[in-house]
Specification:
Elements lengths: L10 H9 L17 E2 L10 H15 L6 H4 L5 H13 L6 E3 L3 H19 L5 E5 L4 H13 L3 E5 L4 H4 L6 E5 L11 H10 L3 E5 L11 H4 L3 E4 L14 E4 L1 H4 L38 H15 L6 H23 L6 E2 L11 E5 L4 H10 L2 E2 L1 E3 L3 E5 L7 H17 L15
Parallel strand pairs: 1-11, 3-4, 3-5, 5-6, 6-7
Antiparallel strand pairs: 2-8, 7-8, 9-10, 10-13, 12-13
Helix pairs in contact: 1-14, 2-11, 4-11, 5-6, 12-14
Catalytic activity: L-kynurenine + H2O = anthranilate + L-alanine + H(+); 3-hydroxy-L-kynurenine + H2O = 3-hydroxyanthranilate + L-alanine + H(+)
Pathway: Amino-acid degradation; L-kynurenine degradation; L-alanine and anthranilate from L-kynurenine: step 1/1; Cofactor biosynthesis; NAD(+) biosynthesis; quinolinate from L-kynurenine: step 2/3
GO cellular component, one term: cytoplasm
Length: 425
């Protein structure tokens, strides 16, 4: 079915697009609040309907009745690998290569440390970690702390300058595949190939790409990757993260947090550490059973899309939604100082759209939230909107643009109630 170009869309056009959307049934997997247009799945995914019952089962039956026997009988001990194998299907990894554990930040510390050990063993003179200047701050903080500890340098650059820096043959290239601020999508395969040509290892953060678009770690020949469980994977606030190491690297070095769950035989309780084979050594402490169970429900919502075209179909819808949003804002909200920050070229765009406003970005987001349109703000000036095709509809995009138009034209964002900053923006 064809509809009008987004610049000339009516709400009826958006409704018609939704009526013919083969992915529309996937929305029924989620417990979306009535009257809310949720455009913040790039920060926290929506609650899957299956999650509450599954968590209740873990708490009342497996923990409440099974007690410690549930490590064996309910398969708790297998959760990191079992859920990891499901996530592997979404990021181009293979069974047994990816585990769920800890937080994204902790996992990044693990893989950066291992990657540095490999890089320095092969080429001790390499003393530089390269990353994007606008990479997510925790990634930069962890890289900076490791650089200080090992007398290395962290060099930051704009996205377009990264290939040139590889000519200096750094030890590591650390990037988030989709930039959290701009939504710019890096070409993982091309940058990894360029890095390898320079003898540089790559570490990829998939926080804004896993579950949002097709990722192919093996196809790109990436070296290490980490990712978040509570954004597009819908695992809930503080959900466990995941970690992957290419098999060619997995057993070369210990990761620095040598905990008992990463031991080759944790229940032998020996005083000396013997790392588990493969990715198992990247486990550390006792896994979060309740968190991993909730995460599995979230991952299953994505795997349900496989019969409807999988991530390729989700990606196509995501781009259609973001394209319509960009066109709608630029047509219906013109003259109010909004500047598009996200790449206009769809091939360079993740699953979010960011606009900058020099004066009122935070207040505008708060005014939208008061109207039931939930996005978020990133300092100093970005209004950020995520498009999760599992549950976002075309009519949601049309309505969100209309609410933004009204916020701007009425000037209500200037009201005092929208100026006070909350702890979380």
């Amino acid at each position: 079915m064809t509809t009008a170009h987004p610049l000339r869309w009516t709400r009826a056009d958006a409704e018609a697009r939704d009526a013919s959307d083969p992915l529309a049934p996937l929305r029924d997997q989620f417990a979306l609040p009535d009257g809310t247009i949720y455009l913040d799945g790039n920060s926290l995914g929506v609650l899957p309907r299956a999650t509450a019952a599954r968590v209740q089962q873990v708490v009342t039956e497996e923990w409440g009745r099974g007690l410690i026997t549930s490590w064996n009988r309910a398969g708790w001990i297998e959760l990191p690998g079992r859920v990891g194998d499901k996530i592997a299907r979404l990021v181009g990894a293979r069974p047994g290569e990816l585990v769920v554990a800890d937080s994204t930040s902790v996992n990044l510390f693990k893989v950066l440390s291992a990657a540095l050990a490999i890089a320095r063993a092969d080429a001790p003179q390499r003393r530089v970690i390269v990353s994007e200047r606008s990479n997510f701050p925790t990634d930069l903080y962890i890289a900076e702390s490791l650089a200080r500890a090992h007398d290395l340098r962290l060099v930051l650059a704009e996205a377009e300058d990264l290939p040139a820096l590889l000519a200096d043959r750094p030890a590591l290239l650390m990037l988030t595949q989709v930039n959290y601020r701009s939504g710019r999508l890096h070409d993982m395969a091309a940058l990894t190939q360029a890095a390898h040509a320079a003898g540089t290892l790559t570490v990829w953060d998939l926080a804004h790409s896993a579950g949002a678009l097709p990722v192919d770690l093996h196809g790109a020949q990436a070296d290490f990757a980490v990712g978040c469980g509570y954004k597009y994977l819908n695992g809930g606030p503080g959900a466990p993260a995941f970690v992957w190491a290419h098999p060619r690297h997995a057993e070369r070095f210990w990761q620095p947090l040598a905990g008992w769950m990463g031991h080759a035989a944790p229940f032998e309780f020996t005083p000396d550490y013997r790392p588990a084979p493969g990715i198992g050594r990247y486990l550390c402490g006792t896994p979060s059973v309740i968190g991993a169970a909730a995460l599995e429900c979230g991952v299953d919502t994505l795997l349900a899309a496989e019969r409807l075209g999988g991530l390729a179909a989700l990606r196509a819808k995501s781009l259609a939604l973001s394209e319509a949003f960009i066109a709608g804002v630029e047509a219906r909200c013109a003259g109010h100082g909004l500047q598009l920050v996200t790449p206009r070229d769809a091939a360079l765009r993740g699953s979010q759209v960011s606009f900058a406003h020099a004066e009122g970005g935070y207040a505008m987001v708060q005014a939208l939230i008061a109207r039931g349109v939930v996005g978020d703000f990133r300092a100093p000036d970005l209004l950020r909107f995520g498009f999760t095709p599992l549950y976002t509809r075309h009519v949601d995009v049309w309505d969100a643009v209309e609410q933004l138009r009204q916020v701007l034209e009425t000037g209500e964002w200037r009201e005092a109630r929208f100026q006070q900053r909350a702890a979380v923006t």
